[in-house]
Design goal:
Shape: rod-shaped
CATH architecture of the largest domain: 3-Layer(aba) Sandwich
Family: Belongs to the LysR transcriptional regulatory family.
Strand order of the largest sheet: 4-3-5-11-6
Order of helices and strands: HHHEEHEHEHEEEEHEHEEH
Largest sheet: 5 strands, mixed
InterPro entries: LysR_HTH_N, LysR_subst-bd, WH-like_DNA-bd_sf, WH_DNA-bd_sf
GO cellular component, one term: protein-DNA complex
Structural class: alpha/beta
CATH superfamily of the largest domain: Periplasmic binding protein-like II
Protein name: LysR family transcriptional regulator
Pfam families: HTH_1, LysR_substrate
Number of helices: 9
Strand content: 15-25%
Number of domains: 3
CATH class of the largest domain: Alpha Beta
Radius of gyration: 32 Å
Number of strands: 11
Amino acid sequence: MELRHLRHFVALAEEGHFGRAAERVFVVQQALSNSIKNLEDEVGVPLVRRTTRRVQLTPAGEEFLVGARQTLALAAQTVEGARRAARGEVGRLTLGFVSGLAFGGLPEIVRVFRERFPEVSVDLRELTAQEQEAGLRGGTVDLGLMLLPVRDPSLSSRPLWRQPLVAALPAGHPLATRAELEIGDLAGEPFVFFPRHLRATYFDQVMRWTSGAGYTPGVVQEAIEVPTLLSLVAAGIGVFLPIRFFESLALPGVVYRPVRDAPLIEIVAVWRGGGEVSPVVGSFLEVAAEVLGSGQANP
């Protein structure tokens, strides 16, 4: 049984006339008549009564009309569902992100994405870069947001935005009175920072920057989360060099100051390589580019 036969039957039932029904479905009248006859042969019972003036449905035809309309509606929904999936409007997105992005960029992007694509279920997972790469390879993560570099050559990536490092200082620190700092101004200051094995790229970039100014930071306290490190700054234990978007984490006792010629930390989107991005991933990347480009995410 073909959908076109059902369309022909519904048109005939609603028009009550072979000529008008044929015009409605853009076929000649004889083709429509043959289509209805083939349908009746397949069903095994008469569906219409033919008269010289009007076509009427048999009781079987009345019942068949209900199912025909439902079948055509379901077919249309199925086609539209496939098209929406191809446009990335429905489905599921498992999104990995490194600690810190929750304070800058990511909330705004996710909010706009969910408003625009309410039928895409977004599963957010805070993961290290290594955990994201493993999840992408294993299929448990669809898209990752992390800092460069991406170590796995089988993964594809796209730059999203760049953020400079800033100085986080105790509120009473003498340098807090200045509008802008030089990295050399922090020579001799006690630092708080991540353990290198957790943020090797970030750690090494800071060390190269300070080395260029002629010193190596003296790290007096380590912690694994940025809010904890900023709490140590507020307590006066040391200074810290976070990415600028952490300025949105307004912690009492901490002031942020820009540092001249600060290195830019690049945040990239990463997905499984070997082909085009999935429609849902593509939709998310489009929204991210739009939000970041408009300044809504304050990159």
